[in-house]
Amino acid sequence: INASYNVQNTISYEQPDFRTIQRKDDANLASWDIKFVETKDGYNIDSYHAIYGNQLFMKSRLYNNGDKNFTDDRDLSTLISGGFSPNMALALTAPKNAKESVIIVEYQRFDNDYILNWET
């Protein structure tokens, strides 16, 4: 008797402000990086203006003191304001005679600090 079974599932979500990059994919390791690209206004983590500094989360150049000058939550990417928890899927195989397998899953999350300097 011959038999086979195949399952496939694709997970997709919109992430216009982020890019997923596969770092490694071989028999022993699969890894991805998820990098911030830019806001809908075109600013990225390296954007810099000689007077205003980095405007990544700046609401306006013309008004608002420092703590009132951050971009409103409603104007941020939903992935930033709603929390970013990407889903990942991985298919594992083992030799037919294997009774045990060791699987190590590592998830790392990195945060960036954003400082808005306001001088009058």
Write a structural description.
With 120 residues, the protein is mainly beta. It has a single domain, classed as Leukocidin/porin MspA (Leukocidin-like, Distorted Sandwich), CATH 2.70.240. Helices cover 3% and strands 12% of the residues. The chain contains 1 helix and 2 strands. It has one helix at 78-81, and strands at 18-25, 30-36. Strands 1-2 form a two-stranded antiparallel sheet. The radius of gyration is 22 Å and the shape is elongated. InterPro entries: Leukocidin/Hemolysin_toxin, Leukocidin/porin_MspA_sf. Keywords: Signal. This is NetB toxin. One of its GO terms (cellular component) is extracellular region.
- The H-level CATH homologous superfamily, spelled out, is Leukocidin/porin MspA
Mean pLDDT: 76
* Computed structural class: mainly beta
Whole-angstrom Rg: 22 Å
Largest sheet: 2 strands, antiparallel
The number of domains is: 1
Shape: elongated
The multimeric state of the shown protein is single chain
Beta content: 5-15%
Distance between the termini: 81 Å
CATH topology: Leukocidin-like
Strand order of the largest sheet: 1-2
What is the name of the CATH class? Answer: Mainly Beta
User: Could you state the order of secondary-structure elements as H and E?
Assistant: EEH
